[in-house]
From TrEMBL:
Residues in ABC transporter domain copies: 15-239
InterPro entries: AAA+_ATPase, ABC_transporter-like_ATP-bd, ABC_transporter-like_CS, Metal_Ion_Import_ABC, P-loop_NTPase
Name of the protein described by the UniProt record: ABC transporter ATP-binding protein
Organism the protein comes from: Gemmatimonas aurantiaca (strain DSM 14586 / JCM 11422 / NBRC 100505 / T-27)
PROSITE patterns with a match to the protein in the record: ABC_TRANSPORTER_1, ABC_TRANSPORTER_2
GO MF assignments: ATP binding; ATP hydrolysis activity
Organism domain of life: Bacteria
TM regions (residue ranges): none
Stated family: Belongs to the ABC transporter superfamily.
Keywords: ATP-binding, Nucleotide-binding, Transport
Amino acid sequence: MSDESTPVAVNTDAIVLRDVSFAYRAGTPVIAHCSLRAPRGRILALLGPNGSGKTTLLKLIAGALAPEHGVVERSGLVGYVPQLLHLNFAYSVLDVVLMGRARQIGLFATPSRRDVDAAMTALGRVGMRGFAERSFDELSGGERQLVALARALAAHAEILVLDEPTSALDLRHQEMVLQWMQALVREDGLTVVFSTHQPQHADAVAHEVALVQGPGHVDVGPAARMLDADVVGRLFGVEIQRVRVDTLDVLTPRWKLRRG
């Protein structure tokens, strides 16, 4: 899914939100007076606990929802990847990825060789090239998530907006997706915005982090400042510590658990 761009006043920003508010029910805001910027060619993580409004904020950024108040500006074409992709027909994996090329193909046109090549290249980048002829319905949740990522990549969007892109993936594929996001920014110059409730993922790849705590409580800043162990601990209501692993400082919860 993609959205037409709205010009951004400051050309160093890919996304700008100005005083944005949204409610599903009148009088019960999910997002209230939120302002943030996503710099071009960088990774912004939306970090927060379940139910804090991350998905709603992400949909506002992507254009899947329209704000009731305020303005969302985008510098280019957005590729939006929902957490769960549901289809009403037994499409092949290749057909699903080709849907991301709808803008290039046209409404009633047949995909060209170039479109198919772009789709296959995208599948290859997420390790799913060998699944091209499989039915999307037959895939596991994690495999569907990877196909949805490939669909956004095939669209040649300039901004990728990903809703918890690692939520259904095993550890190996989580690492692969995080590395893939870094490569898209470093090698292709894309901007990536993703939501997560895993502080370790934000810590691993994000340049900027937005801490999403509920209506009216979205704090944005450089990852090094926002991912302080005490700050993250208060956000999630658990004790967080930084542990040295080889050359890395890793955020991890201090669980109050006992074996047996």
